[in-house]
Amino acid sequence: MSKAKNKILAANEVQHIVSAMIKLYPQIESELNFNNNFELVCAVVLSAQTTDVAVNKVTPELFSKYPDAESMAAAELEDISRLISSIGLYKNKAKYLKSLSQDLLDKYNSEVPATREELESLAGVGRKTANVVLSNGFDIPAFAVDTHVNRVCKKFNFVPEEASVLEVEEVMCSKLPASIWRRAHHSILLFGRYQCVARKHDHDKCIERIEEVLGE
Predict the structure, then answer these.
(1) Which of 15, 71, 95, 107 could join 66 via S-S bond, C-beta 3.0 to 4.6 A?
(2) CB under 8 Å to 67, separation ≥6 — which residues?
(3) Set 93, 98, 103, 128: catalytic member
(4) CA angle 136–116–68, rounded 5-degree value
(5) Are 213 and 23 a contacting pair, CB within 8 Å?
């Protein structure tokens, strides 16, 4: 595997390395816990700048009390805030949950929509969240770029260092077949969460781990 600086890898090279990440982390499901698409969109909104573990600690009580758009929209903002107060940015996220629930009532007959444009019309839902919901909730090919995916794609020269989040998504979608976008997202994310971490580390060991898998 080339360690050359700033050498952007070709599609076949990216696919080769991603195949190793998939072998290391074959999980295709999100680490967020959810039972339906309403819970999924809420959980992904809650996960911004917060760990999935932290979100999974607050959602059982939250979804038990407010299991659907109707009940969440009617909830007192202070109570939603109380239930999620252990996670980061909880006050803003409480507002998003209440507002997106009202959006679902007003625009989509309480159902989570299945297009990116409609999902992004919901309060607190950006492109990354929409892509996660499309792929995990509707099995529609999409490649979500969170902080882990963004970092790993740049560390391995899949994309230019200066690429925006949208550009990372576009480049990765052009280099990977749509049939593996969902799996690739999860595997790259988990590789970044558990191997090629955000804190300072010896990146050569990350490369060596990939080479070990490819050599098996």
Answers:
(1) 71
(2) 38, 39
(3) 128
(4) 60
(5) yes
Taking only the tens place, the pLDDT of each residue in 162-172 is: 999 999 999 99
Whether 81 and 91 have beta carbons less than 8 Å apart is answered as: yes
* Active-site residue identified among 146, 175, 202, 205: 146
Looking at domain 37-138, its CATH class is mainly alpha
Q: Is residue 128 among the annotated active site residues?
A: yes
CA 30 from centre of chain:
8
| Residue 143 Cα distances to 1, 69, 78, 157, 210, angstroms | 24, 26, 34, 17, 21
State yes or no: is 146 an active-site residue. Answer: yes
- Contact criterion met (CB below 8 Å) for 156 and 9: yes
Instruction: Delimit the domains of the chain by residue range.
Output: 11-29+143-215, 37-138
φ, ψ at 161 (rounded to 5°): -60, -35
Question: What's the pLDDT band for 28 if we cut at 50, 70, 90?
Answer: confident
Under CATH, what is the fold of the domain 11-29+143-215? Endonuclease Iii, domain 2 (1.10.1670)
Cβ-proximal residues to 124 (8 Å cutoff; 6+ apart), any chain: 45, 93, 95, 96, 97, 99, 100
pLDDT at 5: 59
**183: pLDDT strictly greater than 90:** yes
Nearest to 146 by CA among 162, 158, 129, 161: 129
- Gap between the Cα atoms of 144 and 150, Å rounded: 9
